[in-house]
Specification:
Helix content is about 45%, strand content about 15%. By secondary structure, it is an alpha/beta fold. It folds into 2 domains: about 15-235, TIM Barrel (Alpha-Beta Barrel), CATH 3.20.20.210; about 255-320, no CATH class.
Length: about 325
């Protein structure tokens, strides 16, 4: 069975053959989705630029994401004059055609549409983390106005993505810390979940069966029932040192595919043999009945021999039938 067919069978609980070590995806992303989209050509460490949201980015360390600064909506009054990016503008969505046409062997790829920093993360980049947190508690209309603006943008860019008939939608908001939720779960349910639902329903009404993935770092066990109720098909990265992975599996078995779970510390600092042992543990713990994609719980520059050990071990021990 090829990787693409197996992936869809895995997510749909339809007798897949093996646990994959990756999703065989080819991605589409609008201009401004990623911080580096706006980075000037040739700019190196120490460079600074402004993105389509009017957020400033500083790039300080090689191999590490730039850091957002100067949030344009840090003051409440700035919202009235703020110019929201237009998802239908050629500057923002015109690149999708080029990306789509550049995909090699499209029939073998899962076509993925990116909604990186979907709501919460984009909101704190626009407002500043502390300002957003305070507004969510004591100035709800301000927080809701920003989240509504972001939801409308997401729906607009979803319309642009749907023109290319994607198979997969990747949403992302980090809602956890190493020890617990980053945001009060009730605030997530009141402010974020209904807006996530609008985005997911928009896709599913137009393409039933489209796969919805959510990336949310940290300890997110508190939100599992919410994610399942939203219809999230794939949850990543299920951080090994932040969550009880056994509990996550028990609560999601037959309801959601888990992706990740291989300890980043082992991948970064362990030997290939230690990586192989970690992978076997995760396959036994999370993938005995499928519904698992086995790879590191963070994307980092790991030693090549450890990447190879992970891939080979998944291929050897991940047979399901």
């Amino acid at each position: 069975m090829d990787e693409k067919t197996n992936f869809f069978r895995l997510v749909r609980r339809d007798n897949p053959e093996f646990i994959p070590w990756r999703i065989p995806a080819a991605g589409l992303h609008y201009y401004g989705c990623n911080p580096d989209d706006s980075r000037p050509e040739g700019a190196g460490i120490g460079s600074r630029w402004t993105d389509i949201w009017n957020v400033t980015w500083d790039w300080e360390l090689e191999g590490v994401m730039p850091f957002p600064k100067n949030p344009p909506l840090a003051e409440r009054g700035a919202l009235d004059a703020y110019a929201w990016p237009d998802p239908h503008s050629p500057e923002i969505s015109g690149c999708l055609r080029t990306q789509f046409e550049a995909i090699v062997d499209r029939d073998a790829k899962v076509l993925a549409a990116s909604h990186r920093s979907t709501l919460f993360e984009r909101a704190w980049k626009l407002m500043g983390m502390d300002t957003l947190m305070v507004a969510m508690l004591i100035d709800r209309p301000w927080a809701e106005a920003v989240l509504d603006g972001l939801t409308e943008f997401a729906l607009g860019i979803a319309e642009e993505y749907l023109a290319y008939d994607p198979d997969f939608v990747g949403m992302g908001d980090d809602l956890g810390t190493q020890r617990g939720p980053l945001v009060n779960p009730e605030l997530v349910r009141e402010l974020l979940v209904p807006r996530y639902r609008r985005i997911i329903d928009f896709y599913r009404e137009r393409k039933p069966g489209i796969v919805i993935s959510l990336h949310s770092c940290g300890q997110v066990t508190e939100f599992l029932d919410d994610f399942i109720d939203l219809g999230i098909d794939v949850l990543n990265p299920i951080q090994a040192r932040a969550n009880d992975l056994g509990e996550m599996r028990r609560r999601t078995q037959g309801r959601m595919t888990l992706e990740g779970g291989v300890d980043t510390a082992v991948m970064a600092h362990g030997t290939p043999e230690e990586v192989r042992a970690e992978v076997r543990t995760r396959i036994e713990q999370l993938g005995r009945e499928g519904e698992y994609i086995c790879h590191p719980d963070q994307a980092m520059p790991f030693p090549e021999e450890n990447r190879q050990a992970l891939q080979e071990t998944v291929q050897e021990y991940g047979r399901l039938r």
